[in-house]
Amino acid sequence: MIEKNYQPADIETRMSVVWEDSLAFKAGRPDRRDAVPFTIVIPPPNVTGSLHMGHALNNTLQDILCRFERMRGRDVLWQPGTDHAGIATQMVVERQLMERQQPGRREMGREKFLERVWQWKAESGDTIINQLKRLGASCDWSRERFTMDEGLSKAVVKVFVELHREGLIYKDKRLVNWDTKLLTAISDLEVQQTEVKGHLWYLRYPIEGKTFSPEDPASFIVVATTRPETMLGDTGVAVHPEDERYRKLIGKNVILPLVGRKIQIVADDYSDPEKGSGAVKVTPAHDFNDFEVGNRHGLRRISVIDREGCLDLLDNEDYLRDLPEGAGQFAEEFHKVDRFVARKRIVERLESFGFVERIEPHTHMVPHGDRSGTVIEPYLTDQWYVDAKTLAKPAIAAVRSGETTFVPKNWEKTYFDWMENIQPWCISRQLWWGHQIPAWYGPDGKVFVAETEEEAISHALGYYVEQEVITVEQGREMALDRNKREGFITRDEDVLDTWFSSALWPFSTLGWPDDTPEVQRYYPTNALVTGFDIIFFWVARMMMMGLHFMKEVPFSTVYIHALVRDEKGAKMSKSKGNVIDPLNLIDEYGADALRFTLAAMAAQGRDIKLATSRVEGYRNFATKLWNACRFAEMNHCAVPEGFEPAKAKETLNRWIAHESAHTTREVTEAIEAYRFNDAAGSIYRFVWNVYCDWYVELAKPVLLGPDSPAKDETRAMVAWARDEILKLLHPFMPFITEELWEVTAKRDGLLALAPWPLKPAQPSPEQLAMLAAAAGPIDPLISPALVMPIFDHADFTDPKAEAEIGWVIDLITQIRSVRAEMNIPPATLTALVLASASAETRERAPRWTDVIKRMARLSDISFADRAPDGAVQLLVRGEVVALPLKGVIDVAAERTRLDKEIGKADADIKRAESKLANEKFVANAAEEIVEEEREKREAALARKAKLLEALERLKQAS
């Protein structure tokens, strides 16, 4: 018995237990042993994280695919897991230690600190997994993985060692994003560009051989900078090779102000003659662009800022080399001064010597650490790198050839742009939490990369015996006595970038590097669902690693979803106070309502504007379904054994079978094409409009009438169509559909494992041969022999039933629309005239007269050769019908009302167009504000069009 009221919280708790106890989501179920696999790997959320709206969208779309394919008979593996999130997790634990006034990690030591992190992970690290379960994610939770599990760590070490052996991992001194608070290199993804109001300083650099005078432009060259403190590390000035102003100066030197070092003027296209003075200072050790300019011209790299963001001048051999007398005193004065304090002092010193030409206000983007909030420093340091350019070549070719495709396809351009200009990937991080780099250093700095310490010791001993640094006897003694190894080889303290282990996720989670049955069966995966912001950081790297180590692409399709914004289109952020918590929405409206909202709004390439009212609306949709199922139950609707919908005799019942087949095809095709919004829209229309508003209403006279064969058939068909709805809706709203299936369908087994209403297309003999010969799945080809036998009704059509019931629906709908437009009260009954009706209409109208009169609020239905005077004429499926309204409405008053409403619409249109025509408004207003004005204009135009149509109809009644 269905409960009277729909209570999502009760259902969700109960259904979660049912799924878990029945192992519904387990991959490799015995009944799917011969089924074609379908694999998705979850983008592993940070172990520190909690469910946000991006997670909710991403995992809802993945779950729709998994539930859909599971119902289609596939052996589905949705691989779950979490990422260790190096910086984020280490920060959480360090903050916890500080708040509890306990010793910090340095005082605690590496081993004890890591014990504390693992302890925290055990206590709190599964929060987001439990939240994903609340969302209804149908992962195989028995296979949950963590990027620092023993097996995954083994894969990481294997990959590092092999890539190093191949020369694709190496150590180099390059610029990195350096966080001066966390004291580590960070990835581009962890850098936020923030608009800052600062200054642009125009500095005079004296030309060598000329007497400097602020009044003599020929004695200096002007450069502009936003970071005057880095000028101490300048090693060149760049001008454009075709800039006539500086052509004669190319190759000459300038004297670096305050420092006195001679630096060369070089010609480089990087300098833009149209910006500033056309000359730029080059500081290769403190700017990424300058680093490249310096490489092109062989300029020195002089680092003048240390790890903590302070000037580093004393004992700095690179800085002190070739300095004239007196510069040492300056170095002592500014040594260990914070970079921003130093900026002010250096500018003051430059001004006192006349080296500052002018200072202008300047708004520009400044990189900040997304976790520390500090300004990121480009820092020259020794780090480990991956030769990404070499690894990228096969990954580029795989997308160009179509082995992997992006949906929407326009994201392939983004992928290519980045991959074709890819830089070396910095993979080392100065942290303790993470995969420690498997490299050891000998006493002379010689590096030994190995999978284990024992292997590294063996390599080291062999090397130093060969170099005659130690003897064979000493080596044997050291190999046996661990105490004698202390200080002989020392392990690299750094850990690997989190993205390094994530890049292996599609195959490391399956047990690689061991040749496991899971690797053989579930790799490569089928689809990856992810956000556009990690195409570079995760998708591209999985492509590179998958092709290099598995010799196959890791996935055939990459579906890129958009952002979830607030209802006005603004990006959600804590600072704006517009963050919507998905857990709050689940608590208030249920997980199904949130999931359906996200799916219904997930149009390809378009950001989602999420309003709470939409979630509430889809909660009402769930209630509508609930009440329809209760109605069916109360009227004893059930599917009898052996019932075949295609053999129904009643026109209404054949019509619902026809509409069900049409919807099944639409939903199936839309999900296959990753058009989640179209699939959701189709099932929504079928449930609300076709089934609830029309079929059930039109069936009521039969269901409430005397017993008869027509009543028996209608009861069966009401229940059958309900069951088809539950199947089609299950991937979107799993909780309510599973509950209703259990209570009303009275079938054995779970809905989650029930057959989808439409079989996949039958492959050709050639395709079947390919499938049989393939080592892995060929998607989407599925042999019928590998699919559970299911009743396929999706080819059923009945144009005659659709024509008749469609005519009834269109007729009632248009009459209702006119009544609403003309403000006709519900209690006022109007007449209807069928003018010049066809034989079909004359034949079908009497069968539906009572229904049409009741639902359209009519007093009478008659036939005539022509529409009577003073009647509003409507065209219904090519035939004229007329509503005589003379004397029913006050035409003059109605025309006045419509004219007034049209005037309001015109005012709204004019107001919006005035704003949109203002170039200053469009340029300066927030994107979401401009979009809101466009939406207002479109809404007003649509409203005006409807009003004009109503006014035109009113003229007929005059």
UniProtKB/TrEMBL annotation:
Q: Name one Pfam family in it.
A: Val_tRNA-synt_C
User: What is the protein's name according to its record?
Assistant: Valine--tRNA ligase
Subunit comment? Monomer.
- Protein purpose: Catalyzes the attachment of valine to tRNA(Val). As ValRS can inadvertently accommodate and process structurally similar amino acids such as threonine, to avoid such errors, it has a 'posttransfer' editing activity that hydrolyzes mischarged Thr-tRNA(Val) in a tRNA-dependent manner.
Signal peptide segment? none
UniProt entry keywords in alphabetical sequence: Aminoacyl-tRNA synthetase, ATP-binding, Coiled coil, Cytoplasm, Ligase, Nucleotide-binding, Protein biosynthesis
Which top-rank group of organisms is this from? Bacteria
- Which organism is the protein's source? Bradyrhizobium forestalis
Biological classification of the source: Bacteria, Pseudomonadati, Pseudomonadota, Alphaproteobacteria, Hyphomicrobiales
Instruction: Describe the location of the Valyl-tRNA synthetase tRNA-binding arm domain by residue ranges.
Output: 890-955
Instruction: Please list the GO terms describing molecular function.
Output: aminoacyl-tRNA deacylase activity; ATP binding; valine-tRNA ligase activity
The segment(s) forming the Aminoacyl-tRNA synthetase class Ia domain are 18-610
Q: Which Gene3D superfamilies match?
A: HUPs, Isoleucyl-tRNA Synthetase, Domain 1, Valyl-tRNA synthetase, C-terminal domain, Valyl/Leucyl/Isoleucyl-tRNA synthetase, editing domain
Write out the annotated subcellular location. Cytoplasm
Q: Residue limits of the Methionyl/Valyl/Leucyl/Isoleucyl-tRNA synthetase anticodon-binding domain?
A: 653-828
* Annotated family: Belongs to the class-I aminoacyl-tRNA synthetase family. ValS type 1 subfamily.
This protein's domain notes: The C-terminal coiled-coil domain is crucial for aminoacylation activity.
* GO biological process terms on file: valyl-tRNA aminoacylation
Where along the chain is ATP bound?
A: 574
Among HAMAP family, the record links this protein to: Val_tRNA_synth_type1
Under SUPFAM superfamilies, the record lists: Anticodon-binding domain of a subclass of class I aminoacyl-tRNA synthetases, Nucleotidylyl transferase, tRNA-binding arm, ValRS/IleRS/LeuRS editing domain
Residues forming the motif 'KMSKS' region are 571-575
EC number assigned by the record? 6.1.1.9
